[in-house]
Design brief:
The protein is mainly β and 89 residues long. The chain is 12% helix and 45% strand. Strands 2-1-4-3 form a four-stranded mixed beta sheet, covered by helices on one side.
Length: 89
Amino acid sequence: MTETEWHTRIDWLIVWDDDSRVLALKTELVGRVEPDKPGQALAALRKQTGIDAAVLRLSGAETDETARIVRCTLVAAPRTGETSLRKGH
């Protein structure tokens, strides 16, 4: 990692609409991802877990310009019909 690279650290809270479970996990992306434009973050979540989700809420965000880190917490729900994680996760 060079000193000039940005990183985005996302804390995910995935909730199922039947209230059967909640999944908490972390994703780290190279680059600066704006939390209010979560397309890239959702793609990373899908790659990491196999879950196709929609963001319900941005629960918190902060940007550290000196460290070049964006940190945020996103609450999301699997899209209709999504019932399980990809094998191995």
